[in-house]
Design goal:
- It is a single chain.
- The protein has 462 residues and is mainly alpha-helical.
- The protein has a single domain, classed as MFS general substrate transporter like domains (Growth Hormone, Chain: A).
- The longest helix is centred in the first third of the chain and has 35 residues.
- The chain is globular, with a radius of gyration of 22 Å.
- It starts with a helix and ends in a 22-residue tail after the last helix.
Length: 462
């Protein structure tokens, strides 16, 4: 009698997810494209690090390199602050049902930071101050966005279960890609590409970019509302006590890490390796637009066209890679994606004098590998999760990823400092990817979980 009754709840307890709640949750991912694709990748950062902010008579190449360094250090500082706060805030988000308030506050901060980019103007005699203001707003927005993502990811568990978490997470991921394409097209057609855009907007004084930031800020805020209104916020069984404090949250995280070290060391090694290579994957998109404009001769319109193409390629390759994941296992897919990324990134660095054609070719190869590596990494962790403990393991996955968010920006800036020109930043990102690959390859996973495409059951050999 005991065995059948143990199986019944596992079959019937998980409720069917409500479609309108899924759509409301995914709308935040759709809106996040305003920050990820428009602000930090293909539009604002590209403009901020361009010769538009060079004082008359200054060397535009040197100015571009300097401002790119400032951007890298600003984002690195933001990453360090996220690393110091994310573990505790991630635990607190699960305690007492505080996810929506946290998401509401951080989303508001992100939206206001994007709207405030309107005040970043290239004014003679004040170029450096304008760039500093832009970097500060980007750093504050990044901190709020990353912390908001902790609460957002926790809300996923309110509308899904073990059988649906991957599919629903994928819907959000896909919504982010599509949202980026749609918003980039709107801004490109409406303001950035034409000499005189909608409402008479021109490029004089960067007006086209600044107006685009107003649209992006409004876009983000509007699409952040549905998840705050329609997705429930309740404490799940097994979550930390509602009375847990900051210190208690860090103790809980430390206790879980110690348990992984004793009992499932291969999982812990994977968490460390993935934290490194996932930050490198983020760096590919974060600095892609900056490099395209500053080192490969892309115009603002060219960068947006590349951004649209990159999102299309990344989305299509991620969907197609799902078959490879099931057929050959996520471990092999992650490994080969990282190998291709390192090779393609090195090629882009070596061919920097070839101009736009080299970046188009290498950049699209990079874009085609980023999505599959991210998706397969998440799928690999899902295979490693113990039944009933998926939530805390995915929470630790998010925490370790955010703890490494300073690596790519710091490596990008250090490489520019060594080489003296912006394109050297490519090597910094490649190094982060290579280190992540080197940490990942030696990890040995349990048989029978499909991690390596194997179905026989043996013990963990970590």
């Amino acid at each position: 009698m005991g065995h059948p009754t143990a199986e019944v709840p596992d079959v019937v307890v998980e409720p069917a997810p409500a479609r309108r709640q899924i759509a409301a949750w995914a709308s935040w991912d759709w809106g996040s494209a305003a920050f990820n694709a428009v602000v930090t990748t293909f539009v604002f950062t590209t403009w901020l690090t361009s010769s538009a902010f060079a004082e008359p008579g200054a060397d535009p190449v040197a100015v571009t390199a300097l401002h790119s360094q400032w951007l890298g250090w600003g984002l690195a500082a933001a990453g360090i602050l996220v690393a110091l706060t994310a573990p505790a805030l991630g635990t607190l988000a699960d305690a007492g049902g505080r996810r929506r308030p946290m998401l509401a506050v951080t989303s508001g901060i992100v939206g206001l930071c994007v709207l405030a980019l309107w005040f970043v103007r290239p004014v003679e005699g004040g170029m450096a101050d304008a760039v500093r203001l832009g970097v500060i707003l980007l750093a504050v927005g990044t901190i709020a966005f990353e912390i908001g993502s902790v609460a957002y990811n926790a809300l996923l568990l309110q509308i899904s279960g073990p059988r649906t978490i991957g599919r629903i997470s994928g819907i959000g991921w896909g919504a982010g890609y599509v949202g980026g394409i749609v918003l980039l097209v709107i801004l490109f057609v409406g303001f950035i590409d034409p000499e005189v855009g909608w409402f008479g907007v021109t490029s004089q004084g960067g007006l086209d970019i600044r107006v685009s930031m107003l649209v992006a800020g409004a876009w983000f805020l509007v699409f952040a509302v549905p998840v705050l209104v329609m997705v429930p916020d309740r404490r799940r069984p097994g979550a930390p006590s509602a009375h847990v404090g900051i210190a208690g949250a860090y103790v809980a995280v430390g206790r879980h890490v110690a348990e992984l070290w004793r009992e499932r060391r291969s999982t812990l090694r994977f968490l460390i390796a993935s934290a490194v290579f996932r930050d490198g994957l983020t760096g590919v998109f974060t600095f892609g637009g900056v490099l395209a404009a500053g080192s490969f001769g892309f115009s603002a319109s060219d960068v947006i066209m590349f951004g649209i193409a990159a999102n299309v390629v990344a989305g299509a390759s991620t969907i197609g890679a799902g078959w490879l994941d099931d057929r050959y296992g996520p471990r092999r897919l992650v490994t080969w994606a990282l190998v291709v990324l390192v090779i393609a990134g090195t090629a882009v660095f070596l061919l920097h004098d070839a101009g736009t054609s080299a970046f188009w070719a290498g950049g699209l190869v990079l874009s085609a590998c980023v999505g599959p590596a991210q998706s397969a990494s998440r799928g690999l962790l899902a295979r490693l999760a113990e039944p009933g403990r998926e939530t805390e393991l995915f929470g630790l996955y998010a925490t370790t990823g955010r703890a490494a968010t300073f690596l790519a920006p710091a490596a990008f800036s250090i490489a520019i400092g060594i080489g003296g020109e912006q394109y050297w930043g490519i090597l910094g990102i490649v190094v982060v990817l290579a280190v992540g690959l080197a940490l990942f390859v030696p990890v040995r996973f349990p048989r029978g979980l499909g991690v390596d495409g194997r179905r026989d059951v043996t013990k963990d050999v970590a």
